[in-house]
Amino acid sequence: MSRIDDTAEPRSGADAPVSATAANLFDLRSVIALLFGVYGIVLLIMGIVSGNDPENLAKTGGSNLNLETGIAMLVVGVLFVLWVRLRPLKVPAAPAETPED
Predict the structure, then answer these.
(1) Residue by residue, what is the 3-state secondary structure of the chain?
(2) In this prediction, what percent of the chain has a pLDDT beyond 90?
(3) How far apart are CA 91 and CA 96, in angstroms?
(4) How far, CA to CA in Å, does 91 sit from each of 19, 23, 63, 86, 88?
(5) Contact at 8 Å (CB) between 18 and 92?
């Protein structure tokens, strides 16, 4: 049977250790990649569904702007994901605590 150490206080705030997984999960590049991906998929679907409508094509000068912008946003989202994967955040190691006398 193991005994729980009641004297240890949980660390919170700036003193709490930060895991690399948590730091990468909330990396701003990941959030931006998610937003570009979601909006890119929405525009891609809109471009496919209403792509051959002559009224919409006349408004944009004959190009399917929703489809083209959706593809471009998906490409940018993929580039952000690659950036996160190839250059992850480096979490600084906590300084070693020295016993105070």
Answers:
(1) CCCCCCCCCCCCHHHCCCCHHHHHHCCHHHHHHHHHHHHHHHHHHHHHHCCCCHHHHHHCCCCCHHHHHHHHHHHHHHHHHHHHHHCCCCCCCCCCCCCCC
(2) 41
(3) 15
(4) 8, 7, 46, 15, 9
(5) no
What is the average pLDDT score of the chain? 81
Q: What percent of the chain has pLDDT over 70?
A: 67
Of residues 73 and 3, the one with the higher pLDDT is 73
CA–CA distance, 88 with 99 (Å, rounded to integer): 33
Q: Can you say how many angstroms the Cα of residue 65 is from the centroid of all Cα atoms in its chain?
A: 25
Count CA atoms within 13 Å of residue 85 on its CB side.
7
Average pLDDT over residues 31-59: 92
How far is the C-alpha of 77 from the C-alpha of 39, rounded, in Å? 10
